[in-house]
Amino acid sequence: MLENNKTELEKSKVHIVIEIIEYVPNAVLSKTIIKKTTGNVTVTSLASGEELAEKTSPFDTYIKIIDGAAEVSINDKKYQLKLGEGIVIPANAAHMFNANEQFKMIATVIKSGYED
């Protein structure tokens, strides 16, 4: 699936997005779809009971749930996202993810627009 040991998925090839990454018990997995200096797109799976610890990013991040459901906390406010739902995590906002059930998400980070 990866092209020439690069970190991106193969270009000009059809992918079934929820099959890009699997679930592994007691694990969080992540795979890069596109990685550029102006931003990146990754797909992540979280097994039930797992979490991604609180962090901040200097850039806006768009999250979309592509399988299951997720609990997302942004600046201590909790959101329950279901299949197909998405949310923008603002730049510099403290955020974390909790898998009350297993879920997969696509994260798109935009690193441009902060030049001014």
Can you describe this structure?
The protein has a single domain (17-110), classed as Jelly Rolls (Sandwich), CATH 2.60.120.10. A hairpin with a 2-residue loop joins strand 1 and strand 2. The protein has strands at residues 28-36, 39-46, 51-55, 60-68, 70-74, 77-81, 86-89, 95-98, 103-110. The chain starts with 27 loop residues before the first strand and ends in a 6-residue tail after the last strand. The protein is built from no helices and nine strands. It has a five-stranded antiparallel sheet, with no helix packed on it. Strands 3-8-5-6 form a four-stranded antiparallel sheet, with no helix packed on it. The model is unreliable at 1-5 (pLDDT under 50). It is mainly beta and 116 residues long.
> Which series of helices and strands comes N to C?
EEEEEEEEE
Q: Tell me, what's the shape?
A: globular
Q: What is the third-level CATH name, the topology?
A: Jelly Rolls
Q: What's the end-to-end separation, in Å?
A: 38 Å
Q: What topology, given as strand order, has the largest sheet?
A: 1-2-9-4-7
Overall pLDDT metric: 91
Helix percent reads: under 10%
Number of domains: 1
Structural class: mainly beta
The largest β sheet comes out as: 5 strands, antiparallel
Which band does the percent of strand residues land in? Answer: over 45%
What is the radius of gyration? 14 Å
